[in-house]
Design goal:
The complex is a heterodimer of chains A (93) and B (261). Chain A has 93 residues and is mostly helical. Chain A is built from 3 helices and no strands. In chain A, helix 2 packs antiparallel against helix 3. The longest helix of chain A is centred in the C-terminal third of the chain and has 38 residues. Chain A starts with a helix and ends with a helix. Chain B is mainly α and 261 residues long. Chain B has a domain of 170 residues. In chain B, helix 3 crosses helix 4, helix 5 runs antiparallel to helix 6 and helix 7 runs antiparallel to helix 8. The longest helix of chain B has 37 residues. Chain B is globular and about 70 Å long. The interface between A and B is medium-sized, with 19 and 24 residues.
Chain lengths: 93, 261
Protein backbone atom coordinates (compact mmCIF):
# COMPACT_ATOMS: atom_id res chain seq x y z
CA UNK A 1 0.00 0.00 0.00
CA UNK A 2 1.25 3.41 -0.82
CA UNK A 3 1.69 6.02 1.84
CA UNK A 4 -1.31 7.97 0.64
CA UNK A 5 -3.66 5.00 0.97
CA UNK A 6 -2.33 4.32 4.43
CA UNK A 7 -2.98 7.91 5.44
CA UNK A 8 -6.51 7.76 4.07
CA UNK A 9 -7.19 4.57 6.00
CA UNK A 10 -5.74 6.19 9.12
CA UNK A 11 -7.96 9.25 8.69
CA UNK A 12 -11.02 7.08 8.11
CA UNK A 13 -10.33 5.16 11.32
CA UNK A 14 -9.88 8.46 13.19
CA UNK A 15 -13.15 9.86 11.89
CA UNK A 16 -15.26 6.75 12.40
CA UNK A 17 -13.97 6.28 15.95
CA UNK A 18 -14.66 9.93 16.71
CA UNK A 19 -18.25 9.60 15.51
CA UNK A 20 -18.76 6.38 17.48
CA UNK A 21 -17.38 8.02 20.63
CA UNK A 22 -19.60 11.05 20.12
CA UNK A 23 -22.76 8.98 19.69
CA UNK A 24 -21.84 6.74 22.61
CA UNK A 25 -21.31 9.79 24.84
CA UNK A 26 -24.59 11.43 23.81
CA UNK A 27 -26.66 8.25 24.03
CA UNK A 28 -25.17 7.00 27.29
CA UNK A 29 -27.90 7.00 29.96
CA UNK A 30 -25.53 7.24 32.90
CA UNK A 31 -23.80 10.63 33.42
CA UNK A 32 -20.53 9.16 34.72
CA UNK A 33 -20.18 6.89 31.73
CA UNK A 34 -21.12 9.73 29.38
CA UNK A 35 -18.40 11.93 30.89
CA UNK A 36 -15.77 9.23 30.50
CA UNK A 37 -16.76 8.76 26.87
CA UNK A 38 -16.62 12.53 26.45
CA UNK A 39 -13.07 12.59 27.80
CA UNK A 40 -12.11 9.86 25.34
CA UNK A 41 -13.84 11.90 22.63
CA UNK A 42 -11.81 14.97 23.57
CA UNK A 43 -8.50 13.12 23.47
CA UNK A 44 -9.41 11.58 20.14
CA UNK A 45 -10.42 14.97 18.79
CA UNK A 46 -7.04 16.37 19.80
CA UNK A 47 -5.42 13.61 17.72
CA UNK A 48 -7.48 14.78 14.77
CA UNK A 49 -6.47 18.40 15.34
CA UNK A 50 -2.84 17.28 15.34
CA UNK A 51 -3.50 15.39 12.09
CA UNK A 52 -4.96 18.60 10.63
CA UNK A 53 -1.64 20.29 11.51
CA UNK A 54 -3.23 22.50 14.15
CA UNK A 55 -1.01 21.71 17.13
CA UNK A 56 -2.20 24.76 19.08
CA UNK A 57 -5.80 23.63 18.95
CA UNK A 58 -4.75 20.04 19.68
CA UNK A 59 -2.93 21.16 22.84
CA UNK A 60 -5.85 23.27 24.00
CA UNK A 61 -8.34 20.50 23.28
CA UNK A 62 -6.36 17.87 25.16
CA UNK A 63 -5.63 20.11 28.15
CA UNK A 64 -8.88 22.03 28.52
CA UNK A 65 -11.50 20.08 26.56
CA UNK A 66 -10.57 16.60 27.68
CA UNK A 67 -8.53 17.12 30.85
CA UNK A 68 -10.02 19.94 32.88
CA UNK A 69 -13.47 19.84 31.31
CA UNK A 70 -13.57 16.14 32.03
CA UNK A 71 -12.51 16.63 35.64
CA UNK A 72 -15.15 19.32 36.15
CA UNK A 73 -17.87 17.22 34.55
CA UNK A 74 -16.89 14.15 36.57
CA UNK A 75 -17.27 16.21 39.75
CA UNK A 76 -20.62 17.53 38.54
CA UNK A 77 -21.82 14.03 37.63
CA UNK A 78 -20.83 12.75 41.05
CA UNK A 79 -22.76 15.51 42.76
CA UNK A 80 -25.77 15.05 40.49
CA UNK A 81 -25.82 11.32 41.20
CA UNK A 82 -25.59 11.97 44.93
CA UNK A 83 -28.40 14.52 44.83
CA UNK A 84 -30.55 12.14 42.79
CA UNK A 85 -30.00 9.23 45.15
CA UNK A 86 -30.73 11.45 48.13
CA UNK A 87 -34.00 12.72 46.69
CA UNK A 88 -34.97 9.15 45.80
CA UNK A 89 -34.36 8.18 49.40
CA UNK A 90 -36.60 11.01 50.54
CA UNK A 91 -39.38 9.82 48.24
CA UNK A 92 -39.20 6.33 49.67
CA UNK A 93 -39.45 7.43 53.29
CA UNK B 1 -49.21 0.86 36.68
CA UNK B 2 -51.47 3.54 38.06
CA UNK B 3 -49.49 6.67 37.37
CA UNK B 4 -51.37 9.90 38.02
CA UNK B 5 -52.63 11.73 34.95
CA UNK B 6 -50.38 14.70 35.62
CA UNK B 7 -47.28 12.53 35.42
CA UNK B 8 -48.47 11.03 32.14
CA UNK B 9 -48.93 14.45 30.66
CA UNK B 10 -45.52 15.50 31.87
CA UNK B 11 -43.78 12.53 30.26
CA UNK B 12 -45.74 13.16 27.06
CA UNK B 13 -44.65 16.77 27.05
CA UNK B 14 -41.02 15.85 27.64
CA UNK B 15 -41.25 13.35 24.78
CA UNK B 16 -42.62 16.07 22.49
CA UNK B 17 -39.84 18.35 23.60
CA UNK B 18 -37.22 15.74 22.83
CA UNK B 19 -38.71 15.14 19.39
CA UNK B 20 -38.70 18.87 18.69
CA UNK B 21 -35.09 19.11 19.83
CA UNK B 22 -34.07 16.19 17.63
CA UNK B 23 -35.74 17.75 14.58
CA UNK B 24 -34.15 21.15 15.26
CA UNK B 25 -30.72 19.62 15.77
CA UNK B 26 -31.02 17.63 12.55
CA UNK B 27 -31.98 20.80 10.68
CA UNK B 28 -29.01 22.58 12.21
CA UNK B 29 -26.71 19.75 11.13
CA UNK B 30 -28.05 19.85 7.57
CA UNK B 31 -27.69 23.64 7.44
CA UNK B 32 -24.10 23.50 8.72
CA UNK B 33 -23.21 20.80 6.20
CA UNK B 34 -24.68 22.90 3.39
CA UNK B 35 -22.75 25.97 4.48
CA UNK B 36 -19.58 23.90 4.70
CA UNK B 37 -20.09 22.48 1.21
CA UNK B 38 -20.74 25.95 -0.21
CA UNK B 39 -17.62 27.25 1.48
CA UNK B 40 -15.60 24.33 0.11
CA UNK B 41 -16.73 25.05 -3.43
CA UNK B 42 -16.34 28.80 -3.21
CA UNK B 43 -12.69 28.57 -4.20
CA UNK B 44 -9.83 30.56 -2.85
CA UNK B 45 -10.79 34.08 -1.89
CA UNK B 46 -8.25 36.61 -0.63
CA UNK B 47 -7.57 35.33 2.84
CA UNK B 48 -6.60 37.20 5.96
CA UNK B 49 -3.92 34.60 6.63
CA UNK B 50 -1.61 36.09 4.00
CA UNK B 51 -1.90 39.53 5.54
CA UNK B 52 -1.38 38.06 9.00
CA UNK B 53 1.82 36.32 7.90
CA UNK B 54 3.05 39.44 6.15
CA UNK B 55 2.75 41.58 9.28
CA UNK B 56 4.08 38.89 11.64
CA UNK B 57 7.51 40.53 12.17
CA UNK B 58 5.92 43.62 13.70
CA UNK B 59 3.76 41.70 16.20
CA UNK B 60 6.57 40.87 18.61
CA UNK B 61 6.05 37.10 18.39
CA UNK B 62 6.95 34.50 15.78
CA UNK B 63 4.05 32.13 16.35
CA UNK B 64 1.14 33.24 14.12
CA UNK B 65 -1.44 31.79 16.52
CA UNK B 66 -0.08 33.82 19.42
CA UNK B 67 0.09 36.86 17.16
CA UNK B 68 -3.62 36.50 16.39
CA UNK B 69 -4.60 35.81 20.00
CA UNK B 70 -2.54 38.48 21.72
CA UNK B 71 -1.99 41.12 19.07
CA UNK B 72 -4.38 41.19 16.10
CA UNK B 73 -7.37 40.06 18.15
CA UNK B 74 -6.20 40.90 21.66
CA UNK B 75 -9.61 42.33 22.43
CA UNK B 76 -11.23 38.90 21.92
CA UNK B 77 -8.73 37.28 24.28
CA UNK B 78 -9.45 39.92 26.90
CA UNK B 79 -13.15 39.11 26.60
CA UNK B 80 -12.38 35.37 26.87
CA UNK B 81 -10.60 36.00 30.14
CA UNK B 82 -13.61 37.99 31.30
CA UNK B 83 -15.88 35.07 30.36
CA UNK B 84 -13.75 32.73 32.45
CA UNK B 85 -13.95 35.15 35.36
CA UNK B 86 -17.72 35.42 34.99
CA UNK B 87 -18.03 31.62 34.94
CA UNK B 88 -16.08 31.40 38.17
CA UNK B 89 -18.26 34.10 39.76
CA UNK B 90 -21.23 31.90 38.88
CA UNK B 91 -19.59 28.92 40.57
CA UNK B 92 -18.81 30.95 43.68
CA UNK B 93 -22.41 32.13 43.74
CA UNK B 94 -23.46 28.49 44.23
CA UNK B 95 -22.30 28.71 47.83
CA UNK B 96 -19.43 27.38 49.90
CA UNK B 97 -17.31 24.61 48.41
CA UNK B 98 -17.71 21.02 49.55
CA UNK B 99 -14.93 20.16 52.00
CA UNK B 100 -12.95 17.96 49.64
CA UNK B 101 -11.25 14.62 49.80
CA UNK B 102 -9.41 12.83 52.54
CA UNK B 103 -5.64 13.25 52.86
CA UNK B 104 -3.74 11.15 50.38
CA UNK B 105 -1.74 8.14 51.45
CA UNK B 106 2.04 7.98 51.16
CA UNK B 107 2.10 6.66 47.59
CA UNK B 108 -0.22 9.29 46.16
CA UNK B 109 1.47 12.03 48.19
CA UNK B 110 4.86 11.05 46.77
CA UNK B 111 3.47 11.08 43.25
CA UNK B 112 1.85 14.47 43.82
CA UNK B 113 5.09 15.94 45.12
CA UNK B 114 6.70 14.96 41.82
CA UNK B 115 3.89 15.70 39.38
CA UNK B 116 2.80 19.11 40.65
CA UNK B 117 6.22 20.83 40.37
CA UNK B 118 6.62 19.19 36.96
CA UNK B 119 3.26 20.60 35.85
CA UNK B 120 4.19 24.08 37.07
CA UNK B 121 7.55 24.00 35.25
CA UNK B 122 5.86 22.68 32.11
CA UNK B 123 3.32 25.50 32.41
CA UNK B 124 6.11 28.05 32.51
CA UNK B 125 7.71 26.43 29.49
CA UNK B 126 4.40 26.47 27.60
CA UNK B 127 4.04 30.16 28.36
CA UNK B 128 7.51 31.02 27.08
CA UNK B 129 7.41 28.74 24.06
CA UNK B 130 4.12 30.30 22.91
CA UNK B 131 6.15 33.16 21.44
CA UNK B 132 7.57 31.07 18.61
CA UNK B 133 5.91 27.61 18.66
CA UNK B 134 2.59 26.05 19.66
CA UNK B 135 1.82 26.94 23.25
CA UNK B 136 0.62 29.99 25.07
CA UNK B 137 -1.29 31.29 28.04
CA UNK B 138 -4.35 29.05 27.78
CA UNK B 139 -2.38 25.83 27.58
CA UNK B 140 -0.04 26.96 30.33
CA UNK B 141 -3.00 27.98 32.48
CA UNK B 142 -4.64 24.62 31.86
CA UNK B 143 -1.51 22.89 33.14
CA UNK B 144 -1.54 25.03 36.30
CA UNK B 145 -5.24 24.25 36.70
CA UNK B 146 -4.49 20.54 36.33
CA UNK B 147 -1.90 20.87 39.10
CA UNK B 148 -4.61 22.42 41.28
CA UNK B 149 -7.01 19.58 40.49
CA UNK B 150 -4.38 17.02 41.50
CA UNK B 151 -3.62 18.88 44.74
CA UNK B 152 -7.32 18.96 45.55
CA UNK B 153 -7.73 15.25 44.79
CA UNK B 154 -4.81 14.59 47.13
CA UNK B 155 -6.67 16.19 50.01
CA UNK B 156 -6.03 19.95 50.02
CA UNK B 157 -9.53 21.49 50.28
CA UNK B 158 -8.38 24.70 48.54
CA UNK B 159 -6.59 23.00 45.62
CA UNK B 160 -3.31 24.64 46.55
CA UNK B 161 -4.72 28.15 46.16
CA UNK B 162 -4.23 30.83 48.82
CA UNK B 163 -7.00 32.26 50.97
CA UNK B 164 -10.03 33.97 49.50
CA UNK B 165 -8.68 37.54 49.52
CA UNK B 166 -5.45 36.57 47.71
CA UNK B 167 -7.38 34.24 45.44
CA UNK B 168 -9.53 37.13 44.21
CA UNK B 169 -6.42 39.02 43.14
CA UNK B 170 -5.08 35.96 41.32
CA UNK B 171 -8.39 35.49 39.53
CA UNK B 172 -8.67 39.06 38.27
CA UNK B 173 -4.94 39.33 37.45
CA UNK B 174 -5.46 38.43 33.78
CA UNK B 175 -8.23 40.91 33.05
CA UNK B 176 -6.60 43.55 35.24
CA UNK B 177 -3.15 43.47 33.63
CA UNK B 178 -4.65 43.18 30.15
CA UNK B 179 -6.86 46.23 30.69
CA UNK B 180 -4.13 48.23 32.40
CA UNK B 181 -1.73 47.59 29.50
CA UNK B 182 -4.45 48.64 27.06
CA UNK B 183 -5.26 51.80 28.98
CA UNK B 184 -1.57 52.58 29.46
CA UNK B 185 -1.03 52.35 25.71
CA UNK B 186 -3.96 54.69 25.22
CA UNK B 187 -2.40 57.12 27.68
CA UNK B 188 0.78 57.12 25.58
CA UNK B 189 -1.14 57.91 22.44
CA UNK B 190 -1.49 54.45 20.87
CA UNK B 191 -4.85 52.74 20.48
CA UNK B 192 -6.29 50.39 23.08
CA UNK B 193 -4.00 47.30 22.95
CA UNK B 194 -2.10 48.60 19.91
CA UNK B 195 1.42 47.68 20.93
CA UNK B 196 4.41 49.56 19.55
CA UNK B 197 6.53 46.94 17.72
CA UNK B 198 9.60 47.52 19.88
CA UNK B 199 7.73 46.85 23.12
CA UNK B 200 5.23 44.31 21.75
CA UNK B 201 7.12 41.20 22.81
CA UNK B 202 7.46 42.23 26.45
CA UNK B 203 3.94 43.58 26.74
CA UNK B 204 2.58 40.34 25.31
CA UNK B 205 4.73 38.32 27.68
CA UNK B 206 3.51 40.40 30.63
CA UNK B 207 -0.12 39.94 29.63
CA UNK B 208 0.33 36.23 28.99
CA UNK B 209 2.05 35.67 32.33
CA UNK B 210 -0.81 37.36 34.19
CA UNK B 211 -3.35 35.50 32.07
CA UNK B 212 -1.65 32.16 32.79
CA UNK B 213 -1.86 32.74 36.54
CA UNK B 214 -5.48 33.85 36.27
CA UNK B 215 -6.53 30.94 34.06
CA UNK B 216 -4.77 28.41 36.26
CA UNK B 217 -6.33 29.86 39.40
CA UNK B 218 -9.77 30.05 37.78
CA UNK B 219 -9.69 26.44 36.57
CA UNK B 220 -8.47 25.12 39.91
CA UNK B 221 -11.05 27.23 41.77
CA UNK B 222 -13.75 25.94 39.41
CA UNK B 223 -12.80 22.39 40.36
CA UNK B 224 -13.10 23.32 44.05
CA UNK B 225 -16.70 24.09 43.12
CA UNK B 226 -17.71 26.94 45.41
CA UNK B 227 -16.45 29.79 47.55
CA UNK B 228 -13.07 28.75 48.96
CA UNK B 229 -13.22 26.97 52.28
CA UNK B 230 -11.56 28.68 55.22
CA UNK B 231 -8.09 27.73 56.48
CA UNK B 232 -9.60 25.52 59.20
CA UNK B 233 -11.72 23.45 56.82
CA UNK B 234 -11.52 19.78 57.66
CA UNK B 235 -11.60 17.33 54.76
CA UNK B 236 -14.05 14.58 55.57
CA UNK B 237 -13.33 10.93 55.06
CA UNK B 238 -16.21 9.78 52.91
CA UNK B 239 -18.99 12.10 51.90
CA UNK B 240 -17.72 14.98 49.85
CA UNK B 241 -20.79 17.14 50.28
CA UNK B 242 -22.52 15.47 53.16
CA UNK B 243 -25.32 17.68 54.35
CA UNK B 244 -26.24 17.98 57.98
CA UNK B 245 -29.68 16.49 58.74
CA UNK B 246 -31.25 19.94 58.95
CA UNK B 247 -30.19 20.66 55.36
CA UNK B 248 -31.74 17.80 53.42
CA UNK B 249 -33.43 19.02 50.25
CA UNK B 250 -36.88 18.06 51.55
CA UNK B 251 -36.34 20.32 54.52
CA UNK B 252 -34.53 23.42 53.28
CA UNK B 253 -32.59 25.35 55.90
CA UNK B 254 -33.92 28.62 57.19
CA UNK B 255 -32.11 31.65 55.80
CA UNK B 256 -29.17 32.49 58.04
CA UNK B 257 -29.80 35.11 60.64
CA UNK B 258 -28.26 38.48 60.05
CA UNK B 259 -25.09 38.54 62.15
CA UNK B 260 -25.18 42.30 62.51
CA UNK B 261 -26.43 43.54 65.86
Amino acid sequence: MSQLTLLIVFDAVLLVTLLVLAFAAVLSPEPRRAVMLFIAFGLWLSLIWARLQAPDVALAEAAIGAGLGGALMLAAARRAARTASRSRGDDAS
Amino acid sequence: MSAPAGLDRATERSRDLRLLLAVLLTLLGVALTLVYLIALNAGAAPRLADLAYERLPSTGVQNPVTAVLLNYRAYDTLMELAVLLAALLGIWALGPAPPGFQRSGAVLAAMVSWVVPLLIVTGGYMLWVGGYAPGGAFQAGALLGAAGVIVRLAGDPRAGLPGEAAQRWLLVAGVLVFTLVGLGLMAFGAGFLTYPPTLAKWLILLIEAAATVAIGAALAAAYVGGRPPGPDARPTAEDEDALTPAQTPANPPAPPLDPRP
